[in-house]
Design a protein that fits this description.
The complex is a heterodimer of chains A (154) and B (283).
Chain A: E1 2-9, H1 13-21, H2 23-29, E2 37-38, E3 45-54, E4 57-71, E5 75-84, E6 87-100, E7 105-118, H3 119-123, H4 125-145
Antiparallel strand pairs in A: 1-7, 2-3, 3-4, 4-5, 5-6, 6-7
Helix pairs in contact in A: 2-4
Chain B: E1 7-10, H1 14-23, E2 27-30, H2 36-41, E3 49-52, E4 62-65, E5 67-71, H3 76-81, H4 83-88, H5 90-97, H6 102-107, H7 110-116, H8 123-130, E6 133-138, E7 141-146, H9 147-150, E8 151-153, E9 156-157, E10 164-170, E11 176-184, E12 191-202, E13 205-214, E14 221-222, H10 224-230, H11 237-251, H12 263-282
Parallel strand pairs in B: 1-3, 2-3
Antiparallel strand pairs in B: 4-5, 5-10, 6-7, 6-10, 8-9, 11-12, 12-13, 13-14
Classes of the chains: A alpha+beta (154), B alpha+beta (283).
Chain lengths: 154, 283
């Protein structure tokens, strides 16, 4: 399955890049996560247990994320794998940043390819794409909130 | 499959349910149970406590008196059969009659349905079109939420933790023409696309249109672009086509897709069912 999305930050591109690379900020933006634990011998790879879901249908997923292909401050790749709710999720997303001079906003676009198997795939198929859209929006919003006010452009 | 272990408590009043919800963070309300229990049996949700509100008779009334009030525990079957609902807002009676199958309609309740906020469900679409108000009660008192503001996102409502839906209020719609047009999933009867039209007419001219889509998007949504297209127009074939195009454009990338109905198909059907709803409302 392919997903795409856009999120706009009210900050300059360098600030947005720094928050995206900040594992403490990422941990704080993921519900139920206290910290991202680095995986030994694998660069730029962390593991965490997160409580994800929508309304009553939420559960604990244990997963790992890896950052690669970093081209600061323009783009990088995020690879995610997780297990939970009797399901397995694998995905990779390419994240692009672009600064809009006129609006003084940084526009993040993401393109993801993901596979879901198990219970979520068999019964939740009709809502997977809006669920991904909703949860990714929540994640970026939670990151955005952590940008200090003096670094905001508006 | 069997659900995970849970405690069960039957509440005899709304006050008691609210109190129990406040005392137990991992509790869920059980009304008709036709969304909650399947999710529990799949173990997608595992609440520690179920608070059964199904026996609170004061939440079951349907009465028309200045406005139409439907208690949160009115079943879909009772909403569909109610003479008051049929008279006040026939589109709601029709939508309720199209939910699931007879067994689901005999148990599922309108309050449970809207609190669950399944995107493929019918009542949210017609309640927004009617301009309904959702009344809720929590530990800090009661509040009224416009249906349009109630459905926030996928399975997400404006309800705060600990709040209970008590009744749904539908304003006086006399003089309006309304209809609900639905494409059902052949097995589940969930809406692939559902559109409700509530029209205020002056002769052939549309004074105001309230048009709402469900099923095709993450939550029932007003088709404001199509509403604007129809305002002040004669509702001929060209106007309906223009409204359908506006609706399709508004749904855009928000259309959901699955194995039964891909996103581009659903988007196209929003236009079709919008026209059907309007035609059916005009009679």
């Amino acid at each position: 399955m392919k997903f795409t999305g856009v999120f706009t930050f009210n900050a300059d591109q360098q600030t947005v890049w720094e928050i995206l690379m900040d594992t403490k900020a990422i941990a704080q933006a993921l519900p139920g996560v206290e910290e991202l634990i680095p995986v030994a011998d694998e660069p730029d790879t962390w593991r965490a247990d997160a409580k994800l879901g929508i309304a009553a249908i939420s559960g604990t997923y244990s997963g790992r994320i890896r950052m690669s292909e970093q081209q600061p401050p323009d783009k990088y790749r995020l690879t995610v794998s997780g297990e939970g709710q009797q399901s397995i999720i694998n995905g990779t997303t390419l994240i692009h940043l672009r600064y809009d001079e006129e609006q003084k906003k940084t526009i993040l676009t993401w393109e993801a390819e993901a596979s879901v198997s198990g219970k979520l795939a068999s019964i939740g198929q009709r809502v997977i794409s809006p669920a991904v859209k909703m949860m990714s929006g929540q994640f970026f919003k939670a990151l955005d909130k952590q940008i200090p006010s003096e670094k905001r452009t508006s | 499959m069997y659900p995970a272990k849970f405690d069960y408590y039957r509440a005899n009043s709304v006050e008691e349910a609210v109190k129990l919800l406040a005392e137990n963070s991992d509790a869920k309300l059980l009304a008709g149970g036709h969304s909650l229990i399947p999710a529990m049996k799949l173990r997608l949700t595992q609440p520690a406590l179920l608070i059964d509100i199904g026996k609170i008779d004061s939440l079951k009334n349907i009465k028309a008196n200045g406005s139409l009030e439907i208690g949160a525990l009115a079943t879909h079957a009772r909403v569909a059969a109610s003479a008051d609902v049929k008279k006040w807002f026939p589109a709601l009676a029709n939508a309720a009659s199209l939910i699931g199958d007879q067994q689901v309609r005999n148990f599922g309740t309108i309050g449970g349905n809207i609190a669950h906020a399944d995107p493929a469900s019918d009542p949210p679409t017609v309640l927004i079109a009617a301009g309904a108000t959702i009344h809720v009660r929590g530990a800090s008192g009661t509040r009224a939420i416009a249906a349009e503001d109630f459905f926030v996102d996928l399975f997400t409502t404006a309800l705060e933790p600990g709040e209970v839906v008590t009744k749904i209020e539908i304003p006086n719609l006399s003089g309006r023409k309304s209809a609900y047009a639905k494409m059902s999933h052949p097995a589940s009867r969930y809406a692939i696309v559902g559109v409700c039209a509530v029209l205020s007419m002056e002769g052939d001219t549309c004074k105001e249109a309230r048009l709402v889509v469900g099923g095709a998007v993450a939550h029932a949504t007003r088709l404001s672009e199509a509403e604007a297209v129809l305002k002040g127009k004669k509702l001929d074939a060209a106007a309906l086509k223009a409204a359908a195009d506006a609706a399709i454009a508004q749904v855009g990338d928000d259309a959901m897709g699955d194995i039964t109905a891909p996103a581009d198909y659903r988007r196209a059907m929003v236009g079709q069912y919008l026209q059907r709803a309007i035609q059916s409302a005009l009679g």
